[in-house]
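Incident log, structure service

09:12 report received: a user says their structure output differs between two submissions of the same chain.
09:20 pulled the input from the user's history:
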Amino acid sequence: MTSFLIRRLAQALLVVIITTGIVFFLMRLLPGDPIYMYMTQEQSTRITPEQLEAARHEFGLDKPMIVQYADWVKNLLHGDLGKSILTQQPVTGALAAALPISLYIGGIAFVLSNLVAIPVGIICAVRRGKWIDTVLTVLANIGITAPSFWVGIMLIYVFGLWLGWLPTHGFTPPWKDFWLSTRQMVMPLLCVMVFPLSGCVRQTRSAMLEVTHQDYIRTAWSKGLGEKTIIYRHAIKNGLLPVVTLAGMDIAMIFSGQVLIETIYAIPGMGKLSVDALFNRDYAIVQGSVLIISTVIVLSNLMVDIIYGWLDPRVTHE
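09:34 re-ran on a clean worker, output below:
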């Protein structure tokens, strides 16, 4: 197990380095000068070439790109992600404010989607061909095909504007106003959950149907074991293996989906921060956001590999 963790952590580090490197160089290949982004129109017309060069030197933009990336990695090892070009504030402060919000929304969406989807998928498999299987499968198919941004806009129109039941934007920490925070989170959570929940239902149903046709399940039936015993003791553990893989992928989907959802609902999380920084060409914010998101994703994949070994003894980590 130790050698496996070392190998996987080395691979994860390599993936993060490659990902941040690609984003780093692509951002700097975009046309235009980001220095002008934090100047007013009057300042940009009056600035002298010497002042412009001094500003570029302040942010290290006058160096070759490979040197800029090496400096960024060196500063990263000391916990310094740089300074925002637009706000002149440290990147770590902006990320520290936005990351807990995204983790809060993403964590709740991940837990709820799996808590709902796995039992629903099991019910569909056990009651295959019944009316409940048909209804739930149709709903899951609709959830997969519905774009999250369209779902978000429809929810705003129906529950925010037409019925007036829920607020249409903003975020309030639950420890400040739990009721307002809950009402603000209903629509964003539904949007974030719709795709991973629907996909998990379909995958759980498919995996359970495949498991229930295995010889050891038929043997359990022939021994006279009850349905609940067969499902809970024999079928679920083996049927959940593909679901665990999908759950690891859902973390990436949830974080990528939050970019749109946080923008639609004006939630000051990592998604909205990344979008605003990308449009403003705020290199340091974009680079820090990519670092955090890619780290979360590769660590989730590592956890999936470890859980695999616990669920299936045939999987070895040596």
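09:41 both user submissions now match this output. Likely a transient worker issue. Closing.
09:42 reviewer note: The domain at 99-278 is CATH 1.10.3720.10 (MetI-like fold). DSSP finds 13 helices and no strands in the chain.
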